[in-house]
């Protein structure tokens, strides 16, 4: 299993829209998340920062993440316009993956 923590900055004027979208996620999005091996997926908010955590249980992470992007392309059109990179130097998309420095089960 792979644990993933990521952050992104929320555009202040889009905060309520982003929260509303996630209060009632599209069924095809929640199904795609499950199909692509993601479990225990959470998103937290503090001010303008979003933090997400999930556990990946598959065996082809890069392939499954590409598939997830394809399956959720319409959803991402809605959510991506609400976000901007937390790290302006990030070159791998909006969300910045964090390094895990501690874990206890």
TrEMBL record:
Molecular functions per Gene Ontology:
racemase and epimerase activity, acting on carbohydrates and derivatives
SUPFAM superfamilies, per database record = Dimeric alpha+beta barrel (SSF54909)
The protein's name in its UniProt record: L-rhamnose mutarotase
- What species does this protein belong to? Faecalicatena orotica
Q: What is the lineage of its organism?
A: Bacteria, Bacillati, Bacillota, Clostridia, Lachnospirales
